[in-house]
Known about the structure:
By secondary structure, the chain is α+β, with helices and mostly antiparallel strands. The protein is built from 1 helix and 2 strands, in the order E-E-H.
Amino acid sequence: xxxxxxxxxxxxxxxxxxxxxxxxxxxxxxxxxxxxxxxxxxxxxxxxxxxxxxxx
Length: 56
């Protein structure tokens, strides 16, 4: 995995719109906090590029 899920949250809100003031609509909001792990990028992109640069 190149990404790690650090935190996640969800909120549920009832929203009333002007067109239908008597009808509540459910609104769900999610918040994800993710961290990128650069090891995959370094091993598969940076190191081969450096090796090819030194060979030429």
